[in-house]
Amino acid sequence: MKVGFVRVRIVLLMLGVCCMVSCSPEQEKPRPGAKGDKTIVCTVNYPLAYFAKRIGGDLIDARFPGPIDEDPAYWQPDTAAIEQFQKADVILLNGAGYAKWMEMVSLPTSKCVNTSAAFKDHYIDLVAELTHSHGPAGKHAHGGLAFTTWLDFSLAAQQSKAIKDALVKRAPEHTADFEANYAGLEKDLMALDQEMKMVAAEIKGTPIVVSHPVYQYWTRGYGLNVQSVHWEPDEVPTETQWQEFRKMLVGHPSQCMIWEGNPAAEAVDALKAMQIESITFDPCGAAPSEKDFLDSMQKNIQELQKYIIQDSIKE
Amino acid sequence: MKGILYLGWRYLTYHWVKAVILISSITLILFLPAGLRVLVQQSRSQLTLRAQSTPLVIGAKGSPLELVLNACYFSSKVPEFIPYGHVEEVLQSGLATAIPLYVRFHAQNHPIVGTSLDYFDFRDLHIAVGRQMSRLGDCVVGAELAREQGIQPGDTIISSPENVFDLAGVYPLQMKVAGILAFSDSPDDAVIFVDIKTAWIIEGLAHGHEDLTRPAAAQRVLKQQDNVVIGNASVVEYTAITDKNINSFHFHGDPAAFNITSILAVPNDHKGKTLLIGRYKADQATRYQILEPDTVLDELLATIMTIERFVITALVTVGISTLVIAALVFMLSLRLRKREIITMTRIGGSRLAVNCILVSEIVCVLLTSIVLAAGLTFATARYAADVIRFFL
Question: Is the reported ipTM for this assembly greater than 0.85?
Answer without folding.
Answer: no
